Amino acid sequence: MTPQQIAAFFTVHRDLPREGPGEAADVHWALSQLDLSGAVDVLDAACGPGADLVTLAEALPEARITGIEKVPQFAKSARTALARFGPRVTVKEADMTRLDHSYDLIWCAGALYFLGVTEGLQGWRSALNPGGAVAFSEPVLPDTAPGSAVMAFWQEYPQITDLNGICDRVAAAGYAVRAHRMIIGAPWEAYYTPMQARVDMLRRQNPDAALRAALDENQQEIDRWRAAPDQIAYALVIATPV
Ligand SMILES: C[S@@+](CC[C@H](N)C(=O)[O-])C[C@H]1O[C@@H](n2cnc3c(N)ncnc32)[C@H](O)[C@@H]1O
Predict the structure, then answer these.
(1) What is d(CA 100, CA 91) in angstroms, rounded to the nearest whole number?
(2) Quick one: DSSP state of residue 88?
(3) Pocket of ligand 1 (CB under 6 A)
(4) What contacts 166, CB < 8 A, 6 or more positions away?
(5) What pLDDT does residue 130 have?
(6) Ligand 1 pocket: which of 71, 117, 225 to mutate (most atoms <8 Å of CB)?
(7) What's the pLDDT tens digit per position in 145-191?
(8) 209-226 vs 186-203: helix axis angle to the nearest 10?
(9) How many angstroms is it from 41 CA to the middle of ligand 1?
């Protein structure tokens, strides 16, 4: 990407509450599946602007919670969102492949695919406390044959599989799937509604060519999601080492 394209990307993505589909109910579901409470250590790997960190901090008032995010703009937004929680909740601008602490839960919404499910889980094994778990969301194909709208949406992620394929990649890392649920519909609306509002607002401000191209790209993504919102999904998976 050219510097202008990078700047345009971050202009579109500034001030969005989250950088991928998800909602507080997903975090609450994972915590209840794991029965996690008290003075536990939790990592949000690739926390983006910090929406899930806020939910984790509210749900686990005694926990030490860390966010790791490699993009300075997102890490700064997360710190702003978390300021009210004080020093027990911190955000590091760092690479999630290099963890120097261990955790009871590694939460990773919409970002494990950057590492690969198998490779990422393998790499995090030594960063889990005994009994610890990884909860991650990952693109997933529907059980029934996906239509052309679904494949168009995922065209830049050819590694996508159905749920069985995700379970295979988890098993290849030496983990077992303890629970899963689908992220579909409302959590995607929670991502795309603010993005659509930002795209519309920036279009009214006489954007330059680079920004117009970024706006077009984001609009295309939103439109592709709107073509098959009942079939475009992430699986939220809780995995533990075996
Ligand atoms: C789709 S966004 C999801 C962000 C956030 N979890 C959420 O749901 O809003 C993916 C995030 O992963 C971050 N990321 C990608 N690779 C990373 C790495 N190696 N270390 C830390 N962050 C990374 C990106 O900067 C981006 O913020």
Answers:
(1) 14
(2) G
(3) 18-20, 22, 46-48, 51-52, 68-71, 74, 95-97, 109-111, 114
(4) 117, 138, 140, 177, 235, 237
(5) 97
(6) 71
(7) 889 999 999 999 999 999 999 999 999 999 999 999 999 999 999 99
(8) 150
(9) 20
Q: pLDDT tens, 21-52?
A: 999 999 999 999 999 999 999 999 999 999 99
Q: Which residues, at least 6 apart from 66, have a Cβ–Cβ distance to it below 8 Å?
A: 41, 42, 43, 44, 89, 90, 91, 92, 101, 103
- Whether the CB-CB separation of 175 and 239 falls below 8 Å is answered with yes
Q: Is 103 exposed, middle or buried (0-12, 13-18, 19+ CB in 10 A)?
A: buried
Task: Mention every residue, 6+ apart, whose C-beta is less than 8 A from residue 220.
Answer: none
| Collapsed DSSP state (helix, strand, coil) of residue 178 | strand
Please tell me the distance from the alpha carbon of residue 164 to that of residue 145, in angstroms, as a whole number: 14
pLDDT-above-70 percentage for the chain: 100
For the beta carbon of residue 223, count every other beta carbon within 10 angstroms: 13
What own/partner pairs with CB < 8 Å and gap ≥ 24 does 26-29 have? 26/52, 26/109, 26/137, 26/181, 26/183, 26/187, 26/236, 27/52, 27/55, 27/56, 27/59, 27/107, 28/55, 28/59, 29/181, 29/236
| Closest residue by CA, ligand 1 atom 26 | 48
- Predicted TM-score (pTM) of this structure: 0.97
Give the residue among 234, 76, 51 at the shortest CA–CA distance from 154.
234
What's the distance, Cα to Cα, between the start and end of the chain in Å? Answer: 41
